[in-house]
Amino acid sequence: GFEPERRGSHPYLGVDFRTLHSRAESAGTIPARRIQRLFSFQRHLLSSRLLRGAPHLNPLHILDEDYCGQAKCMLEKVGSWNFDIFLFDRLTNGNGLVFLTFNLLNQYGLIELFQLDMVKLRRFLVLVQEDYHNQNPYHNAVHAADVTQAMHCYLREPKLAESLTSFDILLGLLAAATHDLDHPGVNQPFLIKTNHYLAALYRNTSVLENHHWRSAVGLLRETELFSNLPAEDSIERQLGSLILATDISRQNEYLSRFRTHLDENDLCLGNASHRHFVLQMALKCADICNPCRPWELSKQWSEKVTEEFFHQGDIEKKHKLEISPLCDSEANTIASVQIGFMTYVVEPLFAEWARFSDTRLSQTMLGHLGLNKASWSAMEALYKSHNNDKQTLTDTQALKQCQN
Ligand SMILES: [Zn+2]
Fold first, then answer.
1. What are the PDEase domain coordinates in residue numbering (predicted)?
2. pLDDT digits (tens, 9 = 90+) for 148-188
3. Mapped to the 3 state alphabet, what secondary structure does the chain carry?
4. Is 180 annotated as a binding residue?
5. Catalytic center residues
6. pLDDT tens sequence across 285-332
7. 238 annotated to a ligand binding site
């Protein structure tokens, strides 16, 4: 069997990270989680036809028969910007990340090309999915699957599709799937002020991103997924460079480099280091593309991320720590958090991305971004006017009024 919980970002302040976001009914989840891990993996082992020595079978055969048709149908449109990852995750019984990533690697012909061992690959993907904390409202395996799906959309954009190598695509998809691995559901400043061992280990610099990367490397080595490939250490390094680029506090650094390249029109995608830089930018876009999705999807992500922020704020209050920006539920609303995020982080990045890749997808994303921002602004205005009337209005009520 597996050694349970042999890695992890959990302990801090004597409080177990695993219980941070657990609901009452799932409190004390340690034994349950162990069972779940064993159960889900064994279930896949038993149900997988791939393991009966038929590596060229359609990987979807491993889905439960009941949902097979619907999930399969969805995967036919896996390159669509409207892809509903929440629905896909439900249809795959919470295994969206495994099935999506497996399907994409297969679709790009990467399993065959790099002669990836099916058993090792499945074990790797299941472990990746299991090491995301499904108690986190936002930073969980569904977010990782969503980022992987967005990455796939960007990899198919003409400029990238024409120039990327199969190795670039393999790295891009793996980085997307693992980029938030073992995320504790709190941010770096929180880890620093609570003297978490990860903050000390990574010297308060890109603490989470370093941990996501090293966790991914740990799983690659444990499963020996790339043991047959010659440049195993180079894969690990490049994976790290992609995941570290998702550190939002370094956004300006990447953005100004991107802007300079675009101004001077000197990106040469025949050059491996330029391709790597474009992959970094694509992953950054994929990571924060929620506000560029259609409203029904975008709204759900906004609610989840704010729930996670406010939860951190509640822990900070409880432990009498300074409350982090955006995390105080009394000083912020979903709408105000979203408007700030869109204005200062998302819009500048996607404006440059659209200059680089001037396509229908880029225009679609900017279109949704504008509409979604207008919706949140309308809600915020309504919220403020109600507050002025000394009435309280929840975000949900405001949302309903706006939609009516
Ligand atoms: Zn992320």
1. 63-383
2. 999 999 999 999 999 999 999 999 999 999 999 999 999 99
3. CCCCCCCCCCCECCECHHHCCCCHHHCCCHHHHHHHHHHHHHHHHHHCHHHHCCCCCCHHHHCCHHHHHHHHHHHCCCCCCCCCHHHHHHHCCCCHHHHHHHHHHHHCCHHHHCCCCHHHHHHHHHHHHHHCCCCCCCCCHHHHHHHHHHHHHHHCCHHHHHHCCHHHHHHHHHHHHHCCCCCCCCCHHHHHHCCCHHHHHCCCCCHHHHHHHHHHHHHHHHHCCCCCCCCHHHHHHHHHHHHHCCCHHHHHHHHHHHHHHHHHCCCCCCCHHHHHHHHHHHHHHHHCCHHHCCHHHHHHHHHHHHHHHHHHHHHHHHCCCCCCCCCCCCCCCHHHHHHHHHHHHHHHHHHHHHHHCCCHHHHHHHHHHHHHHHHHHHHHHHHHHHHHCCCCCCHHHHHHHHHC
4. yes
5. 139
6. 999 999 999 999 999 999 999 999 999 999 999 999 999 999 999 999
7. no
